[in-house]
Amino acid sequence: MQDLSHYLNGEHVAGTSGRFSDVYNPATGEVQARCPLASVEEVNQAVEIAAAAQPAWGAVNPQRRARVMMKFVDLLNRDMDKLAEALSREHGKTLPDAKGDVQRGLEVVEYCIGAPQMLKGEFTDSAGPGIDMYSMRQPLGVTAGITPFNFPAMIPMWMFAPAIACGNAFILKPSERDPSVPLMLAELMEEAGLPKGILQVVNGDKEAVDAILDHPVIQSIGFVGSTPIAEYIYGRGCSNGKRVQCFGGAKNHMIVMPDADMDQAADALIGAGYGAAGERCMAISVAVPVGDETADRLIEKLVPRIEKLKVGPYTAGDDVDYGPVVTAAAKENILRLVQSGVDQGAELVVDGRDFSLQGYEDGFFVGPHLFDRVTPDMDIYRKEIFGPVLSTVRAGSYEEALGLAMDHEYGNGTAIFTRDGDTARDFAARVNIGMVGINVPIPVPLAYHTFGGWKKSGFGDLNQHGPDAFKFYTRTKTVTSRWPSGLKEGGEFHFKAMD
Ligand code: NAD
Fold first, then answer.
1. Which one from 35, 112, 246, 281 is the annotated catalytic residue?
2. CA-to-CA distance for 467 and 442, rounded, in angstroms?
3. Any domain includes 499
4. Is 88 in the pocket of ligand 1 (CB under 6 A)?
5. Closest by CA position to 145, among listed 137, 155, 135
6. 281 and 414 housed in the same domain
7. What CA–CA distance (Å, rounded) separates 89 from 441?
8. Is the same domain home to 143 and 18?
9. For residue 498, what pLDDT band results from cuts at 50, 70 and 90?
10. What pLDDT does residue 499 have?
């Protein structure tokens, strides 16, 4: 079995803490590698290296930094198949999904090629007699990011690409469940021309995270993961005086109005509810049909589509709809919540509990589930399941449907399916959720917009990628300058052009 490493100062370095966690092949249930779990000393070493390397990188002009990003994009495309295979092997998602994971990260890297434009700052000529005023965006220094298992390529790139394009050094603490792709990305950044020590990967668990949170040299922390950990990291990071942005869990509602194209809505729910086994923070986990007739029509369309879903390992071909979930513990948690739904009185219309795949009996596969007549007090409604389970909550009116989405503690994404422009517009304007789709089930903003949820799905002022990333990873300094030639004797302003 392979022992994975950390990536420090341009080298793969074996873990020295003596602590490891198992990395599974979720399709077979086998342990395929061990991930080293860093000690405080190993984190401190990474910070020391980053702090030594960062000033020179921060002084490199933005255009040259952007060229590293350009080359990195080429290398990502060159190695796309290799990256996707490594990602699927540890995460379990299908190869097309794994390529999508790399691609959505790559698009943010492309956006970061615009760093020279984004970092230009502002200038006011003649703000007063002989006075000019300008602001510049300077790198923070050493920055860090802690990422979840479900997008092991995309989310690290969403963080390290803007951080590094802005002139910072970045320490990545990826998920210990699928750490191989982040290590490969760090190697590729160096092949693209990044100096050693600017992007490092420290693998680990809470011990490494706490060391990052408490290290005085680290200036900012980005986190994506579950809400309880997001709240913890936000609180501890902020109280240590760091700039922190944390993105947490989700329970995304899709409202289906009676006038919606029901086939389109059902297709959308299949992709958004069951794609990637529901392990997406932008997955739709709650369908809210408005009116019983709409609900009946929707369920009727959903059931045959769900029954046709092909669940299997990534090696079984591109027609597999979704793969296993990430660990046995994740599978148990999903099945426990499904059972709670049954116990609390929801109607299990499609029951995937007995799902098993011949030849992969030890894999972490979960069959698709569909619940109807779910009510807001049930655990399956309140909690994030993060599995292939779609709950239907029947609403009597548009206002009731809107109220459901608004009252839920999570506020990551939501969607409405309707042909009525007024209703769609009202929904987009009033709903207290960060990302809204109109006849689009997973409204993930593109790289040049920003990504972020509200309520318990996002903590901090700035979103991920887009213009916000350049604000998050820089500090603004404003300079006011006065030169004597702008003044006449006695201090009166000298308008050269008017004399
Ligand atoms: P997680 O919270 O278990 O882990 C995320 C990271 O935190 C990992 O690097 C992990 O090592 C670390 N961590 C775990 N426990 C910790 C602790 N006690 N102290 C300090 N650090 C700890 O999340 P996950 O299971 O890897 O990912 C799934 C979750 O992420 C879901 O809730 C999903 O909705 C969320 N997510 C949110 C977004 C978003 O943009 N809002 C995107 C992707 C995933």
1. 281
2. 21
3. no
4. no
5. 155
6. yes
7. 27
8. yes
9. very low
10. 45
Q: Is the CB of 229 under 6 A from ligand 1?
A: yes
Are residues 75 and 180 both part of a single domain? yes
pLDDT tens digits, residue range 229-256?
Answer: 999 999 999 999 999 999 999 999 999 9
Q: Are 372 and 299 in contact (CB under 8 A)?
A: yes
Of the candidates 163, 130, 116, the one whose C-alpha atom is nearest the C-alpha of residue 144 is 163
Task: Give, using CA atoms, the residue closest to atom 36 of ligand 1.
Answer: 225
pLDDT at 253: 98
Q: For 141-261, where are the alpha helices, taking DSSP H only?
A: 154-165, 180-191, 206-214, 227-239
Pocket perturbation via mutation, ligand 1, pick of 203, 281, 285 by most ligand atoms within 8 A of CB: 281
- Whether residue 166 lies in the annotated active site: no
SS3 call for 415: strand
> What are the strands of the beta sheet with 284-289, ordered from one edge?
347-350, 369-372, 389-392, 284-289, 252-256, 413-417, 435-438
Q: Which two three-digit tokens encode residue 331?
A: 């599978």
Q: Residue type for 382, please? A: R
Q: What would the pLDDT profile of 163-177 be if each residue is shown by its tens digit?
A: 999 999 999 999 999
Predicted confidence (pLDDT) per residue in 387-434, tens digit: 999 999 999 999 999 999 999 999 999 999 999 999 999 999 999 999
Pairing of the two strands 142-146 and 218-224: parallel
Prediction pTM value: 0.96
Please give the average per-residue pLDDT across 305-310, as a whole number: 98
Residues 207, 75 share a domain: yes
Q: How many residues does the chain have?
A: 499
Residues 261 and 404 in one domain: yes
